[in-house]
Amino acid sequence: ALAEATDPSDEMYCGSSWLDAFENCHEPCPSGEDSECSDQGWSCQVYTGCASKLGIYSEDTGDSEEGDNLDPYENNFCG
């Protein structure tokens, strides 16, 4: 089965850099225009996705084993 295509406008977030927008998901900017960003230090970053929506980072600071697997060297494999 083919995966559903996502709307590119769902992947645009404001931030001071691409990484900032990805990690913090400050605010969406679906038109791709910097004017949609409320902070003057931000610009619209394209194809960022949003880490929390993608389930990559968790705000939970408890003693969860889930956070133990964040080392990229332990989770990337060739093949």
Structural summary, described in words:
This protein is α+β, with helices and mostly antiparallel strands and 79 residues long. Strands 1-2 form a two-stranded antiparallel ribbon. It has helices spanning 18-24, 51-54, 72-75, and strands at 13-15, 43-45. It contains three helices and two strands. The two termini are 22 Å apart.
Concise structural overview:
The chain is of the alpha+beta class and 79 residues long. The protein has three helices and two strands; from the N terminus they run E-H-E-H-H.
Count of helical regions? 3
**Strand neighbour order, sheet with most strands:** 1-2
Mean pLDDT: 76
- Which strand-content bin applies to the residues? 5-15%
Which descriptor suits the 3D outline? globular
Notable characteristics:
alpha+beta; 8% strand; 79 residues; two-stranded antiparallel ribbon
